[in-house]
# Entry
Amino acid sequence: MYSFELKKADSVANAAALLAQTGGRPLAGGQSLIASMKMRLAQPGTLVDLSGIAELKGIRKEGGHLVIGAMTRHADVASSAEVKAAIPALAALAEGIGDRQVRNMGTLGGALANNDPAACYPAAVLGLNAIVHTNKRKIAADDFFRGLYETALADGELITSVSFPIPAKAAYVKFVQPASRFALVGVFVAQTAGGVRVAVTGAASCVFRCKPLEEALAKSFTADAAKAVKVSAAGLNSDLHGSAEYRAHLIPVMAARAVSAAG
# Structure
């Protein structure tokens, strides 16, 4: 690991100022960034620690939305009675992230800012048509995820919270890569006020919506309808864990299981 300077922020404004002054990187739970630094894949000269900022933590219901602070840990989302009551699929998703250490250290905002192509939270954000709030603006889910480890966030811009619309039905099912517990293919299915949304993670360089599945499930929200969809392998990942064709096959299978789980 390269040497770096650690600065602790006590407010969002203070964190933004420190990032602007130093050109450093924000440190949320550190479950991805610290590992990258250990492998010398990242070399930030300064880290701005966000863990002491109380305004970035917490879960609350606002009308038809569930608002979760960016520094809320995965374990807190998984165990929250409010999340389980409003969006049980989100609590179940958080419970399935990584191992116990990752869930007790990793944060919602950190996971979204990192945008790992096989991460679970991006599927929930895109599948539920959530709004990502930053210290500068609001970003719609469809506009937030740009590509491999790429988001709409500008330099120094911090996620402060995410507002999840409460769906009529939703579920997330993933085919787990056993060594990492990331999704080889993960599918989040939701019946929302704007219609059926299906978000897929792990299958491509970035989370994406699967329009053929959305169209089929809008007509018939059943497992059989999902299974009948043929997904193209074009643009999907192919590696030692599975070919693009294998991932294409898994997408409707996981979608069908998610529809069944949604009830």
In short: The longest strand covers residues 183-192.
